[in-house]
Every structure is written in structure tokens, then in C-alpha cells.
Amino acid sequence: MSETGVPLLPVDEGSWRLERYLRQGGYETARKVLVTMAPAAVVAEVRKASVRGRGGAGFPAGMKWGFVPQGGDEPKYLCVNADEGEPGTFKDRLILLRAPHLLIEGMLITAFAVGIRTAFVYVRGEYGPMARRLEEAIAEARAAGYVGPRLFGTEFGLEIVVHRGAGAYICGEETALLESLEGRRGQPRVKPPFPAAVGLFRSPTVINNVETIAAVPQILARGADWFLGRGLPKDGGTRLYCVSGAVRRPGTYELPVGTPLREIIEVHAGGPAEGRSVKAVIPGGLSAPLLLPGEIDVAMDVDSLAKAGSMLGSAGIVVIPDGTPMLDVLLTTARFYAHESCGKCTPCRIGTSWILKIVERLKSEGGGPADLDLILDLADGIKGRTLCPLGEAAALPIRALVLKFRGELERAVAR
Amino acid sequence: MSGAKRIGLTIDGLKVEAAEGASILLAAGEAGIAIPNFCYHPGLEVEGSCRMCLVEIEGLPKLELACSTIARDGLVVRTSTERVREARRDVLEFLLAEHPLDCPICDKAGECRLQDYYDLHGRRDGRMAEPRERREKKIPIGRGLLLDRERCVLCTRCVRFLKQVTKTGELGVFERAVRSEIGIFDGAPVDNEYSGNLVDICPVGAITSGDFRFKTRAWFLTREPSICPHCGRGCAVVVESVKGYPLANGERRVYRVTAGENPAVNGHWICDLGREGRRDIDEERHGVVLRQGAPAQGLAWPKALAEIAAAIRSVPGAERAAGVAVILNAGLTCEELALAKSLFVTALGLEKIFFAGRKPGQADSLLLAAERMPNDRGVLEAGFTPRLPTLDELAAARVLLVFGPYLLDHFEPDPVARALAAVPSKYLFSAHAGPLDRLVDAVLPVTVTAEKSGTYINIAGTRQSFGRALAPAAGVVPESTILVCLANSLGLNLGDIDAR
What we know:
The complex is a heterodimer.
Chain A: H1 18-23, H2 28-36, H3 39-48, H4 61-66, E1 77-82, H5 91-98, H6 100-114, E2 118-123, H7 128-143, E3 159-164, H8 174-181, E4 205-209, H9 210-214, H10 216-222, H11 224-230, E5 238-245, E6 251-256, H12 261-268, E7 278-282, H13 302-307, E8 316-321, H14 326-340, H15 346-365, H16 369-382, H17 390-404, H18 406-413
Parallel strand pairs in A: 1-2, 1-4, 2-3, 5-8
Antiparallel strand pairs in A: 5-6, 7-8
Chain B: E1 6-11, E2 14-19, H1 24-30, E3 54-57, E4 64-65, E5 76-78, H2 82-97, H3 113-121, E6 139-142, E7 145-147, H4 157-165, E8 171-174, E9 181-184, H5 197-201, E10 207-209, E11 222-227, E12 236-241, E13 254-259, H6 272-282, E14 290-291, E15 294-295, H7 301-314, H8 317-323, E16 324-328, H9 334-347, E17 352-355, H10 376-381, H11 391-395, E18 399-403, H12 413-421, E19 425-430, E20 442-445, E21 454-457, E22 463-466, H13 479-489
Parallel strand pairs in B: 1-5, 16-17, 16-18, 18-19, 19-20
Antiparallel strand pairs in B: 1-2, 3-4, 3-5, 6-7, 7-10, 8-9, 11-12, 12-13, 14-15, 14-20, 21-22
Helix pairs in contact in B: 2-3, 7-13, 9-13
């Protein structure tokens, strides 16, 4: 998979090294922030930059930080969500492998802004090499005095702990991540209270995605206005768009927030191979309802995708080529959510399994329109009723698949 | 609730008041609006997983959980709109889709939340045409409890009870998604003194008790509140019995004792010792007067009492104070103790009044008290100074009245037999058969706590009055009746005597 595009930093095999990072001015932003800025000013700058969460929910990071109660003796924690499990998404992997110091610098600034002394990076279980790379980078930074106590001659210090997940999609959900990090079964908690108030070990906690934290140094280096200028007024900066599927140049592309989906697919990723065409596009990871070829003239930002009836999610773009049987796509999708449902709440636990059982039967024995209606009904029974967003994430793409490809599916199941 | 701030909200058009910090579910419950739920339990932390209690809150786009949403001033909540009803219908449909529907052979039938809610809120047409998950249906999980994983709705009340209340954590959720199931860890079954509560709190028939399994149906049971007499805590219990006693051989009268709710004493739980008390109510009970340990033909208790009165009268007035000895116990109610005081102390002027009860045991950190009699505080409050007799003191009596079989809890049988042999007239008032029966002239059958009404004062000083939970068998009388009738036989009217 190529990693061409417009990188923020030159990323290549050796780019992860501290020495390379320092040569490009690495850790200078953290030094400036820690030595010259007040924490509140850092939060204000990030809030002004409208950097929306890159993990999938799109919540503005600065606002999230602002919810953490200040003062008081209790510890506060930073958790970096590197449980990159959304199908079609592989951007955090790139940062961990090629630019881990950018993430560490972002963590320093975030922790300083919120008054945090301990940070955890929760790395997806399958990401062994990425976790090792990050640990190597942390060791380098610690040796050079960029991680640990009294950084840059200030009172501020930060310890970073890398924690490996055990291979559950649900642990990317922030409260399930906290449960897992605490050593318990990875299942989401009821919200409220939100992690900003009651999070890891019942303490105020900031949880941000890897890419979100990695975007922080540039905001503080060049200012919120510059960052906003690279994206949209309410959705600043650039994002790492992962393009996979039927395109000539699959890969991760750093492009401004709001870049048209069609441009990403056709110009940057080279579009489908000669003689092939696009049948459907998943714009933001498997949980994002798919779009038809006629619907891809949409700007890739949180609000525009929502308006188009889908979501930007993790910006993982999957291009489905012509000739793909949509019953297979439905089966794959249903199987994923039925497999990854944590089982805690009723609608998701049983609803996803029930839908899978129907789709498996449709695949093996066929069926009729009533089966498709039931799938829609069951998806409606999950949507909006579950403990965490996984229910929505399962129900919405399944609904979209059935609604948008109803004719094809009916023909496919008729025996 | 004194001092706690109250807030006002509207639920289903009703102006409702609630304590600050109360959930919508609690606020609604106080106003008599029942919101269905499985995973919520007032004695456990909120889980929010069953999704049954979703309600509509004005101004919020999604349905919200009534169990975890805190009621706020001015909130407008709706619990019976079409959206809410549809959500309930859907959750129930999901639960039932993976449920074995073996209600005809399920102990929980008749008191099952899934059954009750489905009846109220469920849809009539079954749409599940796919094969159900097959799971193990009778897993022994310890302490005579059996787990049926097909019936389980995964509310995790059991798991949370063991984590949060007993802190023993024997049960966990294993596997994921629809394969999720409750289980014990390898080789470590449920083993704590509160295990029976798991059956009480299971909202469906997933955890059943070996002691109750297949014995009767829930709808045959009459449920009456009482107080547990097995330690000084005084937990609220519910005595669940069938009418029509005496029953055919092998049938039970009391099928189970379950936890009653009393926030001031036991919250929602009782210990296994108290739950096992159902045996104490029915087993080894005296039904007729015994003479030298054998049923006395034609000797009903009033006649036996007349004999006792005659024995007391036979002791000359001057010698009576030292010659007639009485052993009471702290299982007597405050009312009975007051009668005993009037009769034995005030009217008869007896000096030899002793107490014997079950020996203290080990207290635990939850409910079980070291004191194993229910009314030690009541004894003190009645003005007695409880003291165990010495065997010499027993032997010195000319007439001895023993309430309760507890002497042998404190002395070896042989010395007691020798001491009693020296007493010319001795009578036992006891509910249960025991080795003391043969050592006395006659045994009069008396009631157990569940068969009487009265007042106990628990170890914390909480005074609790309780009613009769079930009728005693014919020929079995409460000690209060014994005391009043004995006074009558002696020509004394206890009503005229000031117990104080």
C-alpha cells in the first residue's frame, strides 16, 4: 500500500527517529508552549482551531479539554486512542510507525494544557510493530529529556505508558477503552458521567485519537488561524484520508478537511482501474452508511457528510467496484458487527446476531422481500437504543445497504 | 428523607416530587408510575445495559435511560408514548428471540419479569425464524444454585451483586456478543453466605435454587412479611407458603424464605442462614403435647397448662419465689417478655428467672450479627438481667418452666439430665423436637416467629413490629397465649398488672 499524498512531515522508513524529528524542528513547539505559555492559553488556541476528533465522533478536541475540571488534588489522565479498529482505517498506524515523536510532542502539549502528569496510549492488539515502534520512540525521547519529569527546565513532567489491547473493536469506544485499560472486560460505560469528569480510575480523563493529538503541535507552532485556513471554519486542518478498495493508488492522503470525496478517489487515489467503475463508496469507515456513485460529490468534513446521510467517521474511504455482489457486502458487514458487539446491551447483542443469521440464511438458502423488511426493522430496533455508538454503527450501514441496493438484493435472494 | 432537597418534575403529565439526585426511574416509582427494567436494581450500581427503561425526555432527541438519568427540576418525562412503547416492544422482542420459552417448566414462571413485561408490552407475532443459540441449561454454580444460560437475559445483576455486595466476585461474563454468558471461574464456584440472593435478584429463571427447583409454582405461594429470627439483625423476610397445612407426606408448607426490603436494616438482602430458616419453620416441629417424649393421648395444651398451674400452686407461697424457676429466651417478642415479666416477676414474685438462647457466633461484615437470638435488646428493655442458670440452680428448683430448647446449647446432655432428674416438676415449651423432650414431664408445642406477631428490637436498637406470616397448626400456640392462659389458671389477670 503506498503512502503517497501531501504529508505534513516527510514520512519514510527513517522518519520516526528522534534525530530526524529534531532536525525538522521537533519538540521546539513543546518547548515554546511549556516555557512561555499558560495552560489556559493552550486550550484556548486549540479550541479556536476547531480541531474535530479524528477518531470518528468528530467532537471538537479543545472543547473536550475544557470539560476537564481544573484544580483539586485528584490525578488527571490522558488516554490516546490508538485502537484503530474501524474497517477501512489505517492512518493512526502510519503515525505510530513513521511519526511517533509527533504524537509524543502532541501528548506533551495536551497534558500540559490540561494539567496531566500521566498518559496512556492504548494500542490496538493487532498493532504489535506499531506499539514497539512507539515504545522505542518514547525511550529515545526519555533519554533525550523529552519525556519524564521536569521537562525543558520547567516543573512540568509527563510519564507515558503504552498499553496493548487484546483485539476487540469495542475498545475503540472511549469508555470501553478505559475499562480495558483498568484491567476489566472491555465494555462501554453508561454516560454521563463523561470521561472528562469521571474517566480512568474514576479520575478526569482526556481521550483523543492519535491523529487528533498529532495535529496539536502544528496548531501551537503556527497558530489556530493558520490551521483553520488549511481546513474549514468549523472543522480545521487537514486529515489523513485512508483510501482502499478499487482504486489505482490506495493509501493514506493528507488533505484539507472538506476536500471533495470525488477528488480524493479520482485525482489522489487515481480512481478505479481501467475499465472498472465505482459501485458504491464507504466514506468514513465501515460504520459510515455507503454512498452511491451519484452521491460522492460531497465535501469530506463532519457536517457535510452528516448532511449527506452518512458520516465522516474515521475518514476511511472504501471504494467498492462494479460487479461486487452487495449481498456479500451485507454479509461481511453484518458479520463484523455481530462478531464485535461486546454483548453488554440487549439491542446490539441480539439485534446484530439476528440480522447476521438472516443474512447468512439469505446467502445460503435465499429468501424474500419480507426478510429484507425484517432486517430494516431490526436495524431500527438497534438504532438509538444502545448503550454506546456501536449499535448505531451497525444499524446505519446495514440499513443503507438494504435501502440503496434493495433491487439487487431482492434479485440475489430470490431462488 | 428529612432535610434532603426535593425537586419537581413532570412525568406523564403528573407533577412529581423526588429527592435531589434520584433517578427518573425512582421518581416515577414514587409517583406510582412503573417503568419496566431488568438490569436496574436499587441495591446495585446502575448498569444501563438492558435498555428496557428507555423514556422520552422533552428536549432530548433520543430516548434516555430512566435508571441512570437524574431527575432535574422542571424535567418533562413521558413513559408511555408510542416511541417508548415501541422501544420496549423491540427490546422484549430481542430478548425473547434468544429465549427458550420453557416457561411451563421454569421455576420463575409467574414471577418472571420477561414474562410479565412481555404480557404488558410485547408483540404478539414471533418474527424469529432463525435457529436460536443453544446453551447449557443446568450448570451447578455452587451452593445448590443452578444456572440456565438459555434463559439468561445478561442483566448481570448476579455478577454485580457478587462484586459490589459480597465482594466475592465468583461470577463473571465470558465470551462476547451473542455468545456472552454468565459463568463461574475454573474450579471456583459461588461460595458465600449470601448466595441465595442471586435467585431473588435474577429477573428471569436463569439462576434457580436447588432447594426450590420444581417443587411448586410461584402462583400457589402466599407471601407474607416477617422478621428473620436467626440473628440479632432482624432482617425483613418474606415467608412464602401454601395454604392447606397439614399436607400430604413430603409436601412443604413453607417453600422458601426470601429477602424482604427494609432500607433501615437489611436493604434488599438476607443471608443464607436466614433463608435456610424455612426448614426451621416446617421441620422437626412439635404438633401435640408430649409426655416423657411421646405424644400424650388426649392431653391438649389447656389441660397440660392446668397441670402446670397445679404444680406451681403446690409450692407453698413462701417458698414459691425460690422454688419455681423459669428459663426464658430472647426469641420471645417484647410483648411476650412483658407478659412473662407481669406473670413471673410481678404477680408470682419469682426470683429464679434465667435466660438461655443460641450461643453467639461469628458476625460477618454484611448482615449476620454475632448475637444469634432476635430480641436480646428486647430482653434488656423489658427490665430483665439475662443470666444463664447453673446446673445446681436448675436442680434446686421444685417447678421448672423452660421456654425454648437451648439449654443443651450450653451444657452437656448428661449433666442436664441429672440436674433435671432432681426437679420434681418440669415443663418445656418448644417449637422443635430435641433431646430435651424426654427429660421433662411434658412438652407443649409453641409457635416459631413466622407464626406469631409481635415486636423485636434488633442489635442496633431498631424496634420492629411484625405480623403473623402464616397460621400455626392446630395445637400449636404462641407463648403469649401460654402465658395468658397460665395466669388465668393461676387465677391471675395479667391485664390488671402493670408490666412495668
